[in-house]
Specification:
Elements (H helix, E strand, L loop, with lengths): L6 H4 L2 H29 L1 H8 L2 H13 L5 H17 L14
Length: 101
């Protein structure tokens, strides 16, 4: 949101190139690595792990930037990790519902 107030800074070529470098390169590398991983393990296996992104973001913010984690952040993180863990538990073969009706 603050970027709209600093339009004059973006008009400088060196700042614009730095912003593009910071935004495009890590994003492109991350998407490439995620898509490569999905192609290796399959979408059903990889999907629950995409929900962990906010958890790792909060943890890295805490460790690297010294940000504070509130009670809601911790509870939300535990719910996300728990849900991802539950969704990766293999099902028993006999519990499948037949689609023949």
């Amino acid at each position: 949101p603050f970027i709209y107030r600093e339009v004059s800074a973006i008009s400088r070529p060196e700042i614009l190139l730095q912003l593009l470098w910071i935004a495009a390169l890590p994003g492109a590398v991350a998407y490439y690595m995620w898509n490569k991983a999905v192609s290796i393990v399959g979408s059903g296996t990889a999907a629950p792990y995409s929900n962990l992104l906010p958890v790792f973001t909060a943890l890295l913010g805490y460790v690297i930037l010294g940000e504070k984690l509130g009670f809601g952040d911790i509870i939300g993180g535990l719910l996300i990790v728990g849900g991802s863990a539950i969704s990766t538990i293999p099902r028993k073969p006999g519990n499948r519902i037949s689609s023949n009706t």
